[in-house]
Amino acid sequence: MQCPKCHAPMHTYNRNGVQIEQCSGCRGIFLDYGELESLTRLEAQWSQPAPPPPGAPQAYPAAPAPAWGAQHGGGHYGGHHGRRQKGFGRMLFSS
Amino acid sequence: MTADVLPALTAKVRAAVHPASDTCVCGTGTAVLADRPDGAVVRHAGTVAKAHAVDTDPGELSARMAVAAHPGLAGVLLAPLSPDAVALHGRPVTFWPYGTPVDRENPEAAPWEEAATLLAHLHRTPESVLPPGLPPMRGPAKAARAIARLRAAGPHPAAAPVLRAWAVLPAWARDEAPMPYSRTLCHGDLHLGQLVRVPDGDWLLIDIDDLGVGDPAWDLARPAAWFACGLLPAEEWTRFLTAYQKAAGPAVPSDTDPWPALDVPARALTVQTAALAIAKAVAAERPLDEVETSVIDACDRMAAHSPELAGGFAT
Predict the structure, then answer these.
(1) 3-state secondary structure of B86
(2) What is the pLDDT of residue B299?
(3) Across the interface, do B302 and A93 touch by the CB < 8 Å criterion?
(4) Residue B195: exposure state from Cβ atoms within 10 A (0-12, 13-18, ≥19)
(5) What is the mean pLDDT of residues A44-65?
(6) Global pTM value
(7) Chain B contact for A78 (CB, 8 A cutoff)
(8) Residue ranges of domains in chain B, CATH in brackets
(9) Which stretches in chain B have pLDDT values below 50?
(10) Which terminus, N or C, of chain A has the lesser number of Cβ atoms within 10 Å?
């Protein structure tokens, strides 16, 4: 398929099940009938996440953890990161 | 004691690099890589000399050196330059090729997959490779020693939850009974300081002082404990665990919850880390920092949850 605007070849990408054609020249995007609605629906799901399951919030990717483990909060990465940097250099290198 | 050994150790490593000369002819300096009672390490050019602890058993060290020198462990353990130790100030000294350590300043570059794969290969070492007289790995002994240091440090408000968490561990994890599974070759003290990169680009495990037979879950338990204490993000822990499972490591099941196998060793290493943190804070007369507090908090939470029973691990 050729771009209707600049006539460069278009490449197909799959984003969450929606086929998107993007022009290799002008980077323009071509959507088939119904695809804009599909993307809008996906966007709504993304911005309104399902309520979290009861219990500790899980960081991505969900990993089994012991009952005595700390909560790995996904929304506090900034604060967590500082502790991780400090912990990495010292804790993770000593006996 | 350790201060005494360094000049002689420096002379030893220079002599090892320049055997035909009385003085150093390459002009490079000698760097002290570690200076602790349990291990003084110096480097000159491409050679490293390690003075082991004074109380090192010569027979046990010899068996551990034989494992590191065995061709079956090539690509897993760094091989010594010579299989024999020499005596220096009452301490055995061994010689090794230098390797580049993991960068402490760059958590994103930590070789989690490589560490896990090396451990899986180590744990899959056939029994036929193991020399007679190879002792148990010393993981539980090190944990017990950390608790002894905590008790010797004197009273501290954070000691109580650590000692409570220690008391409910099974006897084998406290080094008071033999390990129930004891035919697997283990490193015994795995952390990120125990990996070096050799000139051909491969990562290898170093430090054989705690190597021996035992429960291989102990070698995974330090990263597991860091994850459980919130010090290691779930993503990095998952990368480590998945790589170990992909390499068919025997410590945990390949497709189900690893925590029944990891729970007791991860508790023991959390307690060990907390005990040493308090002992060091008392000695330095300083407060505990945020990282140390997170490890002690994990000990406190353990009191509410009994150790998991995993197929006879808790005896």
Answers:
(1) strand
(2) 96
(3) no
(4) buried
(5) 57
(6) 0.80
(7) no
(8) 2-97 (3.30.200.20), 107-302 (3.90.1200.10)
(9) 1-2, 310-315
(10) N
